[in-house]
Amino acid sequence: MAKNRQxxxxxxxxxxxxxxxxxxxxKETNRNPGGQxxxxxxxxALQLTEKQKVKFVYGILEKQFRSYYxxxxxxxxxxxxxxxxxxxxxxxxxxxxxxxxxxxxxxxRQLVNHGHFTVNGKKVNIPSYLVxxxxxxxxxxxxxxxxxxxxxxxxxxxxxxxPEWMERNKEAxxxxxxxxxxxxxxxxxxxEHLIVELYSK
Length: 201
Hints:
By secondary structure, this protein is α+β, with helices and mostly antiparallel strands. The chain has eight helices and five strands, in the order H-H-H-H-H-H-E-E-E-H-E-E-H.
């Protein structure tokens, strides 16, 4: 399986996003300060940057992004750009990250691949699996005693801000999808209409 191995801090700076969005609150880089201010970007460059930003945040490569998510978003009713972001938010690896069961989306993807989670009681090891309202995502019983997950419960567990479209049961190591994510639930700045314009050419 192809993996995105781009350096986090450097790439975040180039795309104009905070490393905290990726789960890396302490990462930063001082390399080439002001390098992105050398010249005004063209319309195409702005559109390309927005696409690269979304792909990087969710850890998706071009083929899957275009052939699956964008094409699916176009077929749905409503605004294509918002549909695209909602689909990406519903990915199981993103949900695991947003529930606080993994420190980053990369970490969440690996944990899902290794079969540590269930959806409605059934093991799911596909990071791109799309959750829906009513789904219950939980750490597998066999995985809960591991150091990785045991530190997520109890008084010393890290604080997690859960999005409004899901709820988290810390002690049970599970979360429930309450509703579909909305545009306002996206945690980083993105002009999705530029992505639609790019693919419309």
